[in-house]
């Protein structure tokens, strides 16, 4: 079973590596670095305004730590066929599950390290905690996450099905003990809890039966969330698109009816509104870009980030041009190919103009009128450069 786990991990890493070059592309990384820099700048300005110990600092840290604790899921990498082919191996399954528990700890531990590292300046300014206390709190967080994975393992054997509320109550108590008394008290409490779990779990699981379907369902749900995140940047074969009627958008479709030259404009807009892949991708990147721009204090940095997100959205929409390539009837329409390219160009241009307008509305909230006008001009220039110069060249081979 350990060999099977190693094979699954290698396959998983290979798949994630394939998608990583699409997710962490250069333009997205530039946008992320700009966002992190702007956030750090704002964070530094906020810290400069804080003086002395604040009564609300530790409660805020406690809430942030509980939010961090919810990050990361138990990755079993089980597959649908395992419910049949691994059933005879159930007595040896525990070694597989324990390896999955250890593997699942790495990503949350990294997130805890980053989160606690970001909290250190605030902790030093607004509380009586010292930097070495952050290390003890990190140990407490990792131990709590390990305990959470143990409880998830028990739930897979029909033990402690409703563990979430008691777990977070105990986690809040241990973290409060670490913040208000001493972090060493939290470490001691977690040592006792971990020893108790490791003593009790073999006895609880002695006669338990592994729930294969529930475990596979949970793993499929975890991977579905991951694929949806990846789908923000590239197509994922594991996600099948669905069609929705969305009758409330019909008035927009009527703008393209009754004109032969607008045939493909109508078809593209209809497919975009009624599908889920590209519409969902557009909306998610739109919201993500608006949130990042909201937190950027410098208008010119926000303008660069907005232009990058305009490029990302437009670039992700380019494959949509080929959506009718396998539809034979679309090739029989008495419409020239240049009309199809122009219709797609107008669709992308309209979507990017809406995106630029929303970005401009976000900027209007916390920037001056002059800065807003400059930002809007930059975004409009980016839209027209992309749709009139760059994207037509990318579609040239399709002519």
TrEMBL record:
<dbReference type="Pfam" id="PF05975">
    <property type="entry name" value="EcsB"/>
</dbReference>
<keyword id="KW-1133">Transmembrane helix</keyword>
<feature type="transmembrane region" description="Helical">
    <location>
        <begin position="21"/>
        <end position="43"/>
    </location>
</feature>
<protein>
    <submittedName>
        <fullName>ABC transporter permease</fullName>
    </submittedName>
</protein>
<feature type="transmembrane region" description="Helical">
    <location>
        <begin position="302"/>
        <end position="324"/>
    </location>
</feature>
<feature type="transmembrane region" description="Helical">
    <location>
        <begin position="278"/>
        <end position="296"/>
    </location>
</feature>
<feature type="transmembrane region" description="Helical">
    <location>
        <begin position="344"/>
        <end position="364"/>
    </location>
</feature>
<feature type="transmembrane region" description="Helical">
    <location>
        <begin position="165"/>
        <end position="193"/>
    </location>
</feature>
<feature type="transmembrane region" description="Helical">
    <location>
        <begin position="99"/>
        <end position="119"/>
    </location>
</feature>
<feature type="transmembrane region" description="Helical">
    <location>
        <begin position="55"/>
        <end position="78"/>
    </location>
</feature>
<keyword id="KW-0472">Membrane</keyword>
<feature type="transmembrane region" description="Helical">
    <location>
        <begin position="370"/>
        <end position="391"/>
    </location>
</feature>
<keyword id="KW-0812">Transmembrane</keyword>
<dbReference type="InterPro" id="IPR010288">
    <property type="entry name" value="EcsB_ABC"/>
</dbReference>
């Amino acid at each position: 079973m350990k060999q099977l786990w190693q094979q699954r991990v290698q396959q998983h890493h290979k798949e994630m590596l394939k998608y990583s070059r699409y997710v962490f592309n250069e333009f997205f990384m530039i946008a992320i670095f700009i966002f992190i820099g702007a956030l750090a700048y704002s964070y530094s300005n906020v810290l400069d305004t804080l003086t002395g110990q604040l009564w609300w600092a530790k409660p805020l840290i406690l809430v942030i730590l509980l939010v961090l604790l919810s990050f990361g899921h138990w990755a079993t990498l089980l597959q649908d066929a395992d419910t049949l082919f691994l059933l005879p191996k159930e007595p040896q399954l525990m070694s597989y599950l324990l390896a999955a528990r250890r593997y699942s700890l790495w990503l949350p531990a990294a997130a805890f390290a980053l989160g606690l590292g970001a909290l250190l300046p605030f902790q030093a300014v607004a509380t009586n905690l010292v930097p070495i206390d952050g290390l003890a709190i990190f140990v407490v967080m990792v131990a709590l996450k390990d305990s959470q994975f143990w409880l998830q393992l028990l739930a897979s054997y029909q033990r402690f099905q409703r563990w979430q509320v008691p777990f977070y109550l105990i986690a809040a108590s241990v973290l409060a003990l670490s913040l208000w008394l001493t972090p060493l008290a939290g470490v001691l409490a977690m040592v006792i809890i971990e020893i108790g779990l490791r003593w009790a779990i073999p006895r609880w699981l002695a006669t338990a039966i592994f729930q294969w379907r529930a475990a596979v369902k949970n793993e499929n749900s975890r991977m579905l969330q991951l694929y949806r995140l990846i789908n923000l940047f590239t197509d994922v074969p594991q996600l099948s698109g669905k069609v929705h009627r969305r009758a409330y958008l019909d008035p927009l479709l009527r703008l393209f009816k009754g004109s032969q030259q607008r045939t493909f404009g109508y078809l593209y807009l209809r497919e975009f509104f009624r599908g889920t892949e590209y519409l969902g991708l557009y909306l998610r990147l739109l919201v993500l870009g608006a949130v990042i721009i909201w937190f950027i204090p410098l208008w010119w940095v926000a303008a660069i980030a907005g232009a990058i997100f305009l490029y990302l959205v437009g670039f992700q929409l380019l494959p949509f041009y080929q959506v009718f390539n396998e539809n034979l009837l679309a090739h029989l329409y008495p419409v020239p190919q240049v009309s199809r390219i122009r219709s797609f160009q107008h669709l992308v241009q309209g979507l990017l103009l809406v995106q630029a307008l929303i970005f401009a509305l976000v900027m209007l909230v916390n920037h001056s009128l002059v800065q807003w006008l400059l930002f809007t001009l930059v975004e409009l220039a980016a839209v027209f450069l992309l749709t009139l110069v760059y994207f037509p060249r990318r579609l040239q081979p399709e002519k």
